[in-house]
Design goal:
- 4% of the residues lie in helices and 36% in strands.
- It has 135 residues and is mainly beta.
- The chain is globular and about 45 Å long.
- The chain contains 1 helix and 9 strands; from the N terminus they run αβββββββββ.
- Strands 1, 2, 4, 5, 6, 7 and 9 form a 7-stranded antiparallel β-sheet that branches. A two-stranded antiparallel ribbon has the order 3-8.
- β5 and β6 form a beta hairpin.
Length: 135
C-alpha cells in the first residue's frame, strides 16, 4: 500500500531565485519542492533530509493547487478559489504556513496531497545540512 502511494507522487527540488518573493528570509536561500500527485487518491508525503538542530520541526510555506476534477475551470490555492483580475492579472498567491517534522526516520507525513493536486513547498536552505541553495 505505501509503495503504491509513493509511485503516484513525483517530487522535484530546486533552489529559489535570489530575488524571489517567496523566500522565507531575505538572508537565506530556499529549496522549493514541487510535488505532483497524479494518482486517483490522496497521498501522504514525507520530506526527508532536514538537519537535526534540536528543534522538532522547520517552518515552510505551502502553495497547494487543487480542483474538483481534471476538467474543472476552478482552481483553488490552499482551499481558496483563484480568480483572475478584471484585466486578467494573476491574483496574489498567498502561502499557507506549515511545519515539517525533522528526522528522516519519522513516519509522520509532512503533507497530505489530495488526488490530482500540485504543491510547492518552500523550505529555508538553512534547514538542510548541506545546501547549494544557501546565499
Amino acid at each position: 500500500q505505501q509503495q503504491q502511494q509513493q509511485q503516484q507522487v513525483s517530487v522535484w527540488a530546486h533552489c529559489a531565485r535570489d530575488n524571489a518573493d517567496i523566500l522565507p528570509n531575505e538572508e537565506d536561500g530556499a529549496v522549493v519542492f514541487l510535488l505532483l500527485n497524479y494518482g486517483n487518491s490522496s497521498a501522504e508525503v514525507i520530506l526527508e533530509g532536514l538537519k537535526e538542530d534540536g528543534t522538532a520541526s522547520v517552518k515552510a510555506d505551502l502553495y497547494m493547487l487543487t480542483a474538483q476534477s481534471l476538467s474543472s475551470r476552478v482552481v483553488r490555492l490552499n482551499g481558496k478559489e483563484l480568480v483572475l483580475g478584471t484585466d486578467d492579472t494573476i491574483p496574489h498567491l498567498e502561502p499557507m504556513a506549515i511545519e515539517i517534522k525533522r528526522g528522516g526516520g519519522s513516519q509522520d507525513p509532512a503533507l497530505t496531497m489530495p488526488q490530482h493536486s500540485i504543491a510547492f513547498v518552500v523550505v529555508p536552505a538553512s534547514a538542510f545540512d548541506s545546501s547549494e541553495c544557501s546565499k
